[in-house]
Amino acid sequence: MAHLLVDAMNVIGSRPTGWWRDRDGAVRALVAKLQLLVRAEHDEVSLFVDGWPVADLPEGVHGGVEVLYASRRGANAADDRIVEFVGAHDDPGSLDVITSDRELSNRVRALGARVRGVTALLERLDALEGPPG
């Protein structure tokens, strides 16, 4: 069982789905997909989100997915929260940070965490959802 630390906006922004027109909806949709992953593969998932909290998705655990918001505003705020989480963890080597952000990758690797690309996660999520249509 892995503990995935997901850089939400990096994952959401990796596909041109029009997410910028409904950021909150995109976060909700990612949480729903990650809940499928938790149920199917029993991974532990922490989702780190930039920006204001989604009104109906407060910080906490939702269907097995821990939702955490950036503790400050501005660029890379969720990245800083991920780095804090990794730095405070008893076993950073047991954590897989899901991001394509090079700077964040370097920061968490320096603390002992592993980094996995966004594409691999999206492929896992797509497989769980099945073919479109």
How would you summarize the topology of this molecule?
Layout: E1 3-7, H1 8-12, H2 23-41, E2 44-49, E3 60-62, E4 65-69, H3 77-88, E5 95-98, H4 102-110, E6 114-116, H5 118-129
Parallel strand pairs: 1-2, 1-5, 2-4, 5-6
Antiparallel strand pairs: 3-4
Helix pairs in contact: 2-5
Give me a quick take on this structure.
Helix content is 43%, strand content 20%.
Overview of the molecule:
- The protein has 133 residues and is of the alpha/beta class.
- The chain has a single domain (3-129), classed as Rossmann fold, CATH 3.40.50.
- It is built from five helices and six strands.
- It has helices at 8-12, 23-41, 77-88, 102-110, 118-129; strands spanning 3-7, 44-49, 60-62, 65-69, 95-98, 114-116.
- The protein has a six-stranded mixed beta sheet with strand order 3-4-2-1-5-6, sandwiched between helices.
- β5, α4 and β6 form a beta-alpha-beta unit.
- The mean pLDDT is 93.
What sort of overall outline do the alpha carbons produce when their principal axes are compared? globular
Percentage of residues assigned to helices: 40-55%
CATH architecture: 3-Layer(aba) Sandwich
Structural class: alpha/beta
What is the total tally of β strands?
6
- What letter string, H or E per element, gives the SSE order? EHHEEEHEHEH
Largest sheet: 6 strands, mixed
Q: What is the first-to-last residue Cα distance?
A: 31 Å
- The low-confidence runs, each spanning 5 or more residues with pLDDT under 50, are none
**C-alpha-based Rg, rounded:** 14 Å
Question: Approximately what portion of the residues adopt beta-strand conformation?
Answer: 15-25%
Overall number of domains: 1
Strand line-up of the largest beta sheet: 3-4-2-1-5-6
Number of helices: 5
**Mean pLDDT, all residues:** 93
Q: What is the CATH class designation?
A: Alpha Beta
CATH topology name, in short, is Rossmann fold
